[in-house]
Amino acid sequence: MPGQRPSLDDVADRLAIDDLMDAYSVALDTKDWDTLRTLFVDGAIVDYTEEGGVRGSIDEAIGWFRQAMDAFTASQHFVTNRRVRVTGDTATGSAYIFSPLGAPNGNGGLALVFAGGTYDDTFQRTPDGWRFASRTIHATWFHVGLQGGAAPPKTS
What pLDDT score was predicted for residue 148? Predict the structure, then answer.
């Protein structure tokens, strides 16, 4: 409950789950699909249907992420306003997502896309730490077509 003093175990679990959420965002932004795969338990379900994506396994989601993110050379996923409830070896959570993305516009700049929404998650404690058992995105808004500054240099 908000405002109550958590136990040390509660704090440790929350920090581990926060690290998991951050690792997910970094893996998406760096297109590190191998690391992304390790953040989920076997049989986990990822649901991106509200963003035109898939509902399925992490491997099916990665297939869609590869295609959807291919054009973007700039990507930052910010996950905030996290609410996590731990019950033993499982947990549920929700968080806001804000994601600015940029694709080269052909004029040295970026065509920008901004998206916002929420994640609904379930987590499972494993011998290797907390992992996603499910992740669902709820798209709230998009803004497409703004022009931005210089595109970042391409990396191989």
Answer: 65
